[in-house]
Structures are given as structure tokens and as C-alpha cells.
Amino acid sequence: MSGSPCVNIIGAGLAGLSAALELSRMGISSNLISSQPSERAQSVMAEGGINAAMDTMGESDSVQAHFEDTVKGGVYIGEEDSIRGLTQNAPAIVKELIALGVPFDNVNGRLIQRNFGGQKKKRTAYAQSSTGKLIMSALIDEIRKHEANGLVKRFSHHGFESVVTDDSSCCGVIIRDLFTLKAYELKGPVIVAAGGMNSLFPGLTTGSVANTGDVTAYLYSIGVKLSNLEFIQYHPTTAAIEGKRFLITEAARGEGGRLFVMEDGKQRFFMEEKYPELGNLMPRDITAREIASQEGGSCLLDMTHIDKSVWNNKLADLRGHVKHYLGVDPASEYIKVAPGIHYFMGGLYVDRYHKTSMDGLYAAGESACRYHGANRLGGNSMLGALYGGRTAASSASENLLSGPSDDIREVGIPYEYTDFSVPQSVAEPLARACAITRNEETMTDALRELEELDPSAFTLKDRNRLLLSEAILTSAAGRRESRGAHYRTDYPERDDTNFACRSVIAYDNGHHCLEFDKGKYL
What we know:
Blueprint: E1 6-10, H1 14-25, E2 29-34, E3 50-51, H2 63-73, H3 80-99, E4 106-107, E5 110-111, E6 113-114, E7 124-125, H4 131-148, E8 152-156, E9 158-166, E10 169-177, E11 183-187, E12 190-192, H5 214-221, E13 226-227, E14 232-241, E15 244-247, H6 251-254, E16 258-263, E17 266-268, H7 270-274, H8 284-292, E18 299-302, H9 308-313, H10 316-326, E19 335-344, E20 347-348, E21 361-363, H11 381-396, E22 408-411, H12 424-433, E23 437-438, H13 440-451, H14 460-478, E24 487-488, H15 496-499, E25 502-508, E26 511-517
Parallel strand pairs: 1-2, 1-12, 2-8, 12-21, 23-24
Antiparallel strand pairs: 3-7, 4-5, 6-7, 9-10, 10-11, 11-22, 13-20, 13-25, 14-15, 14-19, 16-17, 16-18, 18-19, 25-26
Helix pairs in contact: 1-4, 1-11, 2-3, 3-11, 5-14, 12-13, 13-14
């Protein structure tokens, strides 16, 4: 590895591992940088499965149908060129995972796929409800081979501090050893695969609190463009536990779980009444709004009728998790569920090659904005992370420094401790304004509250988080329509004339500059 050009990857979940693996296969060195080891990445928590049109269930599924469902699910503002690449490559990605040893559920070697929200075909491959954990295990093992041959260097327990720029281009990264608190500079292009923005919504997300969004917040503060921040996905079925929301995977409904409320002593299956075609498997934005509209903003999930063999062979780990965290046996008792923040469709703006608006800087996974438009389909997140990671790696490989870049230089940057989550003075207005349903008054009031805060009272990271919070609210207030996960009571209709496009926001000279782009940043 000595003396070779190198790519720096921030994050060691699915997108980061995929990028490192792709680079290794090209014979290119990478630094894999993460605050925690891959075994504790949020990707391990992914439960339901990964989509690929492999037609193993005899339903005449096709890549074209997967493409159309993804475009429709994203309410027609997903990047269609990228979505086509995503869906076309999905079968090969799943086959590669099988070759790496991922034990997807199968019968006599035939892959079994299940239904997932917003899709009429069974195209979600799964490993019970621990799919993310098992895919991550396979990728971690594969990466270790490349660590052994020197192509991957691990920097676990290292946090991101900043990028290094040369004439406005990214040419390196500064990281901090979280044990010694010493900071180091690494040269080379940078791929951001650091996950979503959970720190902005403490206690309200299903994701890891370690996925702070601080990399995104910092990059926004120095002028890197973000996109589609207003689209925050609420998963329909979560439950409150200490410090976060507990996810009850969509696989529960994919295997027959039914949402209902009690009326006059009887079960009313409201999703099946209103949406007879897809019922409980409508896209997540619609299902979450329907649950939120019920009395108390919650409902019950009935899984008591599910066959014992399904519990034993497909949902055993889900049952165990529900019993452990909620004290309920879902095979014999109803579960009270309510929507919780689950995924950020928006993030760093990237083009079809996963390049950001800064040369030498790339992004993939939940850090980026590319595939999901206004609403992500269940089963597309792990696919997007894997495909996006390899795409970003391919692009970064074309931007390697001409000389050796695997040297490490200590730099004297003071350490400033910051909590995982934003201060309540930021979190409360943001959560109130970015609820499942929104309106001008709540968003304007929240923005005013944030603008009245004294940034000098915050740490540097919290000042950046404050800017990112303002960017989310600015994006949401500017989209005067309802589309996907962004639903406004004052603009309840979709406006394809003015807003059938992504939002792009940049921080420039102290101002949040928002525009609705119809192709300028392709």
C-alpha cells in the first residue's frame, strides 16, 4: 500500500463497505473511517430486505416494473437515469451477495421474495428480519481480505472533523482519533457515506443516534449543495422505547400483518377499506399519514393470525425483538404502533456519478439524495447504498491524486465535545414544523425561533446543525405543494407545474439560497 494514491471513505456501513470493496477490486487503496466499527453501523439494523426483480415467485416481475414502482413511489421526482441503473443492477447485486454467503431465505435453493410497500410484485429478498445484519457480516468478511492485502486501512473510532481543500476542490480529510483525541490529515478524494441526520430529531427516529448528520451539516456550512431536505420519511409502524423509536419492520405487513382501530368493539381495518388494491402495503408516506389521522395518532397491528411456520421461518427474530423491547408477544397480542422518523430522502446533492457540488467530494447511501425522490420504497435503501457506494467509488477512482497519498500527518486542531443530539431549543421547533403534516404557520414560526437563537452559545458542531435545521425548514417552506413525505395542509395538492423537480439549497455568504431545479445540476 505504501506510496499509492488513496480514497478516503467516511462511514463503514453498507455504502462505505460497498465503496471500499469496489475500489479494492480495481486495485485502489482506501481508508475506511468510522466513529464505530462496521458491526455497529446503522446498516446492521436494517430488517426487511433488499429489492431486486428476479421473478423467483412466478409473478412475471421485471426490472421495468421495479423501475416504474420506484419512480411512482418517489412521486416522479426521482432521478430516472439513476433509478434505471439502480433497478437494472439489482439482480446482479443480490446474486453477488448470495455468492458472498448471505443466507437469504430460500426453498431448495430457490430464492424466496416477499411483498413490500408500494410494490405489487414479490421482489424483496430477505434473511428473516435481520437482512442488514447478515449482508453486513458478509461484506465485513470480504473487506477483511482486502485489509489483509493492504488495500483497505481501517480507522475505526475516528471521527470526521473537516475536509481539506485546494482551490475549492476537496483533496483530503481531517479526522480525529476518539481515544487519543489527536487529529490527522489524510490526502485524496473523499466519499461521504455517513448516514442520515438523526441528531436533529432526538428520540424521534428509528436510526442510530451515532448517525448525527454532522458531516452533512459541516459540508453545508462551507457551501456544498444539499437537495430534497424536505422529504423526511416517517415509517408507519414504530413504538417508543428509551431514547428512540423501535422499528417494526414492513415485513410484518408483508407477511400478513393488518392495521386496525377499534370501533364499537370491532376491528376496523382502515387501510384495507380505503386502499383495497395494496391495503396495508401502501407506500410509507400514505400509510403513515393514515395512521397519524386516527384518534391518538396511532393504531394497532394485528399479527395474531399469521401461521406458526411463518413466525418460525421468516419472522422469528422480529418476534424476539418485539418481546424483548416491548414486552409483547406479537403472535398472540396486538401491538400499538405510531409513525416515527425512519429515513432522510434528502442529503448531499449528487449527480448520476455521485459527485457532489465540490470537486473531489462524493457521497452515497443515506448521506446522498439520488434515488428515492419524495418517498423511498421499502427494500430500496440497502440496494441504493450498495449500488451508490460502488458508483461513488468508480467516480472517485478517476480523481486520484497523482502522487502518493496514503501518508498520515498529525495536525493540531483543538477538540470540542458535542452531544449526539442538537439542543432542545433547536430540536423542538424543528420537530414541530417537520411533522407528518405541515403548514406555513408552523414552519415560519419554527424558522423564526431558530433565527433568534444565539449561535455563539453553541459548539461549532451545534452551530452547523442549526444551519442544517434552518436549511430543512427553508426547503420545506419553499415547496408549496404536497408530494410524498412532504404533506402540507395549506397546499394539499401536488403541483407538477412548479414543483415536479428536486429542491437544491446552498449556504452562501450567510444566506440559505433555495431553488427548485429542473435539470441544471444533472
